[in-house]
Design brief:
Radius of gyration: 21 Å
Order of helices and strands: EHEEHEEHHEHEEHEHEHEEH
Organism: Pseudomonas monachiensis
Shape: elongated
Bound molecules: NADPH dihydro-nicotinamide-adenine-dinucleotide phosphate
Number of strands: 12
Number of helices: 9
Strand order of the largest sheet: 8-7-6-9-10-11-12
Keywords: NAD, Oxidoreductase
Distance between the termini: 27 Å
Structural class: alpha/beta
Pfam families: 2-Hacid_dh_C (PF02826)
Helix content: 25-40%
Largest sheet: 7 strands, parallel
Protein name: 2-hydroxyacid dehydrogenase
Amino acid sequence: MCILYMADPADAQKWRDCLSTLAPELEFRQWPDIGNPAEVHYILAWEPLADIAEQFGNLRLLYAAGAGVDQFDLARLPANVSLIRLVDSSMADIMAEYVLFGVLALHREILAYQEDQRSGRWRPRPIVHASQRRVGVMGVGNLGRAALDRLQPLGFQLSGWNRSLKEVPGGHCYVGPDELEAFLGQCDILVNMLPLTPETDGILNAARLDCLPHGAGLINVGRGAHVIETALLSALDEGRMGGAILDVLVQEPPSQDNPLWKHPRVLLTPHVASDVQIEGGVAVIVENLRREREGMPLLNVVDRSKGY
Ligand code: NDP
């Protein structure tokens, strides 16, 4: 029984060490040294694989090395192979830390003050109490819920928007497409934490950004393709939106002529809000080995019908 590692070679040794300690029964192989492909029951990969079914006839589980699974074409994955996300609480904690940073930066208008500093302007703005600031999270899943939990003690007015009804600590959960505009209309700070699916691709377009209150801020930690960048730039340039903190972009890295690089009201980070944590990922793999042995449902299986 072996796991074939096809993710970042720089991390291979850490995965190997951690797996050999916690799952010594699992042989670790690293691409391209696949050995006998019939012995490969598990693959840990970042990139989509062509011909996976033909190459690895005994493959049971495909572990996604990244946090999202939008890079996999689920339709091309054999029906008997489950795709598994390696999410754990430490990944959610790290993401919540980034969201907290972004919300506080937008709440305290740090991007505007940074622009003032660069222009030599000393211009205090009215202070807004956290209780008067409405923060909305799109996608109240594993990561969205952890971010909301971290924000709650700061006293913001919280809300969420989700496909199904979820508990939002101290706030209201808006549900489904019919309630999206109402949700956006009350977000002074909008945090996008959705997975990328055909339904959510381009969801933050010009019309939806127009629903936000005047001067609203955006934090995007979902996927770049959720936001129509030209629409965001227009809203920022026209002052309809106050700022954006973007960890993900349509093209990563963006081309040098992308105006987002130098926009005074935009803070870019290179897709570092969170990531799969090796110890947490290995814990999922080990737990799933146990569950497979005992015939129990596996952890973190991607729902093919939903795409996440
Ligand atoms: P989950 O699957 O736990 O949560 C996704 C949530 O989004 C669910 O609550 C789901 O609703 C909701 N959702 C999905 N589709 C829709 C829709 N069409 N309308 C309304 N709500 C919808 O995922 P995670 O929280 O673990 O991760 C979310 C995403 O964050 C990842 O897919 C990835 O793209 C991104 N990410 C980014 C990172 C970064 O570094 N920037 C790092 C980690 C993740 P329901 O509960 O009803 O199913």
